[in-house]
TrEMBL record:
This is Substrate-binding domain-containing protein. Keywords: Signal. PROSITE patterns: PROKAR_LIPOPROTEIN, TAT. Residues 311-334 are annotated as: Disordered. Residues 36-294 form the Periplasmic binding protein domain. It comes from Pseudonocardia zijingensis. Its main location: other. The lineage of its organism: Bacteria, Bacillati, Actinomycetota, Actinomycetes, Pseudonocardiales. Pfam families: Peripla_BP_4 (PF13407).
Length: 334
C-alpha cells in the first residue's frame, strides 16, 4: 500500500509538470522546455543522486535537460566555467547548485542580463553577491540546514542523557551549508552536552578519519561527533572503530547517502539526518518548468528531511532515493 501511494503521488506530480509544459510552449524543440543544470562534483554520491533526479524527472515530463557537473566538490573555477559556457546557449531556464555562495555569480549575471529564469537548489547563492550582480533568482529549493543540525542535536542529546563533550567536524571553512548545520547543532544541544572542539575536514572521508583519530587520542572522554555530511561521518565512524569504541562514541551526520543508511542499520553510525537530493533535483526541474511558463514561484521551498536511526533505517533504505512518505511539491500545479 505504501509503495502504491508513493507511485500515485509521483504520477500526479509528473502529470502536473506535463500540464505546465503544454501551457508554456517554451523554448527548445517545439513546445518542449529546455533546462540546463550545473551541479557540484559527481565524486560525491549526494550529487550523483541529484543528477539522477534531474534526468529522471526531465525524461518523465518531456523536458530537454542538459546537466553538467564540476569535476569535484571543491572545483569552484571549473564549475563557474561550465555555467558560463551554458549561459551562452539558449535554454529556457537554468538550475544551479553552487559550490560556494559566490563562485557562479559571473555566469548568473550573464543569465540575468539575458532575462533567463534561474532556479537555485541545495546550496544558496550569496544574496548580497546576487544583488550586486543584478541577479533575481526564481526560487531556492533546499534543506533547512539549521533545522537539520538541530534535529541531529536533539538526537545526540537523547543518546547522551547524562551529557558530556562532543566534537564537530565541518566541511569547507566558511561554507554556508556547513555553517548552518553546525549552527543548528550547537544551538540544539541539551542535557549538558557541550562542544569540546570544532574542526574542518573539507567534506572528505579520509580527512575526517584523520581529524577524529587525533581528537579521540587527545580527548579519550569524548562522547560523540557531529559531522556536517555523511562522507565525513563515515570517516569518523572508522576512526571510532579503529579505537575500539563503536557503540561508546556516538556519531551523527547529515545527508542520508546509501552507505550511511547501511552504516546506521549496522550500528556504525548512530544516526543520519537524511536529505533527498533526488527529490531536490526533481523539484528543480519542476520549478524551472513553472518559471519558464511565467509562473510566480515561492521564494524558498524546504526539501524533505528525516531522522534515520537503527529503528527506521531499513524503511529509509527501502524507500530511497525518495522519502518514505509523500512530500509537498508546490510547483506541480503551477
Amino acid at each position: 500500500m505504501h509503495n502504491r501511494r508513493r507511485a500515485l503521488v509521483a504520477a500526479a506530480l509528473a502529470a502536473g509538470v506535463a500540464m505546465a509544459l503544454t501551457a508554456c510552449g517554451g523554448g527548445g524543440s517545439g513546445d518542449t522546455t529546455s533546462v540546463a543544470a550545473v551541479i557540484k562534483g559527481l565524486d560525491n554520491p549526494f550529487f550523483q543522486s541529484m543528477e539522477k533526479g534531474i534526468t529522471d524527472r526531465s525524461a518523465a515530463a518531456g523536458v530537454q535537460a542538459t546537466v553538467q557537473a564540476a569535476t569535484s566538490i571543491t572545483d569552484t573555477t571549473g564549475q563557474a566555467d561550465k555555467l558560463t559556457g551554458l549561459a551562452g546557449q539558449d535554454f529556457d531556464c537554468y538550475v544551479v547548485n553552487p559550490i560556494s555562495g559566490t563562485n557562479l555569480v559571473q555566469g548568473l549575471a550573464q543569465l540575468a542580463a539575458a532575462g533567463k529564469p534561474v532556479v537555485n537548489i541545495d546550496s544558496p547563492v550569496d544574496p548580497a553577491a546576487a544583488q550586486a550582480a543584478g541577479v533575481q533568482l526564481a526560487t531556492y529549493i533546499g534543506t533547512d540546514n539549521v533545522a537539520a543540525g538541530r534535529i541531529a542535536a536533539e538526537r545526540m542529546s537523547e543518546i547522551l542523557p547524562d551529557g558530556g563533550p562532543v566534537a564537530i567536524v565541518g566541511g569547507i571553512p566558511g561554507d554556508v551549508t556547513s555553517g548552518a548545520r553546525i549552527e543548528g547543532f550547537t544551538a540544539g544541544l541539551t542535557n549538558g552536552v557541550t562542544v569540546l572542539q570544532e574542526v574542518a575536514a573539507n567534506w572528505e572521508r579520509q580527512e575526517a578519519l584523520t581529524q577524529a583519530t587525533t581528537i579521540i587520542g587527545a580527548h579519550p572522554d569524548v562522547k560523540g561527533f557531529f559531522a556536517a555530511n555523511d562522507d565525513m561521518g563515515l570517516g569518523i565512524a572508522r576512526a571510532v572503530a579503529n579505537a575500539g569504541k563503536t557503540g561508546e562514541i556516538a556519531v551523527i551526520s547529515v545527508d542520508g547517502n546509501p552507505d550511511a543508511l547501511t552504516a546506521v542499520a549496522n550500528g556504525e553510525l548512530s544516526a543520519t539526518v537524511a536529505q533527498y537530493p533526488y527529490v531536490i533535483g526533481q523539484l528543480g526541474v519542476d520549478a524551472c518548468t513553472a518559471a519558464a511558463s511565467g509562473a510566480s514561484l515561492p521564494a524558498e521551498v524546504d526539501a524533505p528531511v528525516q531522522l534515520v536511526t537503527k529503528d527506521n533505517a531499513q524503511q529509509a533504505i527501502d524507500s530511497a532515493p525518495e522519502p518514505p512518505t509523500p512530500y509537498d511539491n508546490p510547483f506541480a500545479t503551477q
